[in-house]
Amino acid sequence: MRPFFSRIIKPWLALAATAAMVGATQQGCTKDTPAAEAASSAPTVPEKRENGVRVVELTVTEKGYEPSPVTLKKGEPVKLVVTRKTDQTCATEVVMDGYDINTPLPLNQPVDISFTPKESGKLVYGCAMGKMISGVFLVD
Known about the structure:
By secondary structure, this protein is of the alpha+beta class. It has helices at residues 2-27, 35-40, and strands at residues 48-50, 53-61, 64-66, 70-72, 78-84, 93-96, 101-104, 111-115, 121-126, 134-139.
């Protein structure tokens, strides 16, 4: 039993310990913002308007709905222009609870979805599979 432990188990333990230490040191060197900071700051999305309605262009990629989060204003009409660019996603439609939005997203075809945010706060939208893939509107 002793030779087995020395020849097989010790090298595996050393390898696992080394991998854990390398992983721990690499976390401190990342330029990524912490998740809490990333969620609280929405990316700057150029404001487009058509006849007084804010137009927000969203794209569905392998990463999900982009950009996200997007800041909107309570009571301001919004037209989403959503284009699904991949088949490698379950986000083949967009669902937004409380707004009766359940709209199919055909591949590579822009789809217009209009609504007006009713309440301030975080508004989550996503795929029909329980929003496994989702995006966020931050409503001021």
